[in-house]
Amino acid sequence: MTHKFTVLIIEDEKNILAFVGKVLKKHEYRVLCADNGSEGLNLIHSQCPDVILLDLGLPDMDGISIIREVRTWTSTPIIVISARSAEKEKVSALDLGADDYITKPFGTSELLARIRASLRHSNRLITDSTLYIRPYQSGGLCLDFSKRLLTIDGREIHLTPIEYKIVAFLAQNSGKVMTYASILSNVWGPYADDDNKILRVNMANIRRKLESDPAQPQYIFTEVGVGYRMKEDEFDTGDPAQG
Amino acid sequence: MKKLFFRNLGVTLLCLIIATALSFLFFHFGRGNSANIALIYILALILTALNTQGYLFGIFASLFCVAAVNVFFTYPFFKMDFSLDGYPVTFVGMLAISLITSTTTTRMKKQKAILEERDKKLAEADKERIRANLLRAISHDLRTPLTSIIGSSASFMEDYEELTEEDRLELVSNINEDAHWLLNMVENLLTVTRIQNDSGKVRKSLEVVEEVVGEAINRVRKRHPDLVVNVDMPEDFLMIPMDATLIEQVMINLLENAFLHSGSDAPVNLVIENQEDQVAFHIRDYGIGLDEAQIPYIFEGKYHSDNTDSYRGIGIGLSICKTIITAHDGTICASNHEKGAEFTFILPKEKETEDDA
C-alpha cells in the first residue's frame, strides 16, 4: 500500500507528542501534531486526518468540545487519551461520538492496535460492505454473520437470540470499546431501560459459554464502568467459515 | 441570628410566666408570704440566665422580677410603689444575681467552645502528621527509582559510544522497570484520594465480581506476562457493591506481591467464596510465606524483610489495601498456609436483595 494514513495527535505534553509521533512514523503513518485545541481544530479542518488522537486535558479548550465540534461534520475516528480513574470522562467522550479511548500510560502495541481497529471500522463503512459478511475470527472463535453461527475450535456454541445480538454487535466493532449505553440501545432498542444489569447478566452467561475461564476471558474483555471490548478481528480474509 | 433571639426570648418568657403562675398559687395558699415568692423569682432568674445567650435577657428578666414582686405581691397590690422599704436593695440584688449567672454561663460556654476547638485542632494536627509521615515515606520510596532512572538515562546519553549493545539494553530496561514501579505507586496513591473525598467512605455501585477480577488480572499480566493465576470461583452470578477501581487496585497489589515477593514461580490461586451475606477473596501463593512475627503489623506500612530492598513499597501497597477494604466495610487479613502466604479480604453483599439471576 503506497498511501499512508494520516494521524493527528492533539496533546499538550511535548514528550508524549514526541514519543507517539516517533512510534507512528516508524509504523508508516503520516503524523500531524498540535499542542493545543485551536491548532488541532485548524489541522482537522485543513488536513482531514484519517485518525485523531485527542488528549482531553488541553490548555486552551475542553477536549470534549472538540469532539462535539468535529462530530458536526465528519465521522473521522477519534481516539481519546485519558487518565485511568476518569470513567465518567471516558463514557461521556464515547457517548459524544469518540470511537475509542486509550488510558495513560499506554504501550506502543496497545496504541497501534487501537488505531488499526478504528481505521478498519471507519473504512469498512465507506469502501467494502462485503466485509460485514466475512466471518469474525479470533483465536478459536469464529462468528459467521450470515449463518448466525458461533463456533469455538469448530464446536458449535448455542446462544439465545439476545446473546447472539450482543456478541454480533461486539464482533462487528471488534477491538473497540462499546459502552453499556450503546450495546443496550443496539440490542434492546432505543427505549431500553438505563439499568445495565440485564446486559451484565447476559454477558455473564455469554462468558460462561465462550470462555474457558470466565474470570480470565480471552475474547470479550470488560472495561469496568465503561463497557465491553471484543478482541480484535484477526483479519485473515482467506479463511472461509467453518461448519 | 434571628432564630437565636426568638429562642432566647421564648425561654425567658416561659421561665417568667411559670414563675409568676407559681407565685400566684403560693400567694393564694401561703397567705401573702412574699419571701417564698422572691425565691421563686430568683430561681426563674437563674434559669433564664443559664439558658440564654448574653446579658440582655438576664437583665430584662431581673427588671421584670422586681416589677412583678412590686406590683403583684407587695402592698399596695397591682400598683407600682417605689417608696417601699429596701426596694433598691431587692432590685440591685436581683440584677446582680442575673448578671453574675449570665457572666458565668457565657464564660462556661466560651470555654467549652475553646476546648472543642482545641480538640478539633489536635485531631487535625494528628491527621496532618499521619499525612506528613506518609508523604515522607513515599518521597523516600520515590527517590530510589528516580535516582536509578536519572542515572541510567544519563549514563546512556553520556557514554553511548563506549557502551556495548547489551549494556544499553540493560540500562533502558532498568529505566522501564523503575518507571513501571513508579506508575504502580502513583496509581496506589491516586486511589487513596478517591477515598478521602468524603469522610472515609467510597462511592459504590453494583459490579460483577468476575469482571472486576478479570480486569485486575489482565492489568497485572500486562506488567508481568509470566504470572499465572488460577481462579476458582462459584458458578453464581455475583454482584456486590464496590468502587471497582479501588477493589481492582487491592487485587493488583495482592497478586503482584504474590508474584514478586513469594520467591516462587508457582501459579497463584485466587479463590472466591460466595458466603451468605458476604463474598470472600483468598489470594494464595506457594512461596516463602510471611514472617510470622510481622503479620500483626503487615497492614501498617511497616513490613520489612531481611532483604529490604526487594520489599520497597510493599508496605505502602498493603496499607492502601487495608484502607480501601475498610472503606468498603470489609475486612482483610494475612496468614500463612502450609506452602506459602495467604491474603483474604471479605466484602459485604448488598443488604436488601439477593442477587440471583
Automatic annotation (TrEMBL), chain A:
Gene3D superfamilies on file: 3.40.50.2300, Winged helix-like DNA-binding domain superfamily/Winged helix DNA-binding domain
One MF term in the entry's GO annotations: transcription cis-regulatory region binding
Gene Ontology biological-process entries: regulation of DNA-templated transcription
Top-rank taxon: Bacteria
All copies of domain Response regulatory, residue ranges: 6-119
Sites of 4-aspartylphosphate modification: 55
Keyword Membrane: no
Alphabetical list of PANTHER family matching this protein: KDP OPERON TRANSCRIPTIONAL REGULATORY PROTEIN KDPE (PTHR48111:SF50), REGULATOR OF RPOS (PTHR48111)
Name assigned to this protein: Stage 0 sporulation protein A homolog
TrEMBL record, chain B:
Subcellular location(s) of the protein: Membrane
Signal peptide coordinates: none
InterPro entries cross-referenced by the UniProt entry: HATPase_C_sf, HATPase_dom, His_kinase_dom, HisK_dim/P_dom, HisK_dim/P_sf, Histidine_kinase_KdpD, KdpD_sf, KdpD_TM
EC number(s) reported in the record: 2.7.13.3
Membrane topology: Multi-pass membrane protein
Record-linked SMART domains: HATPase_c, HisKA
Catalytic reactions on record: ATP + protein L-histidine = ADP + protein N-phospho-L-histidine
Name the record gives this protein: histidine kinase
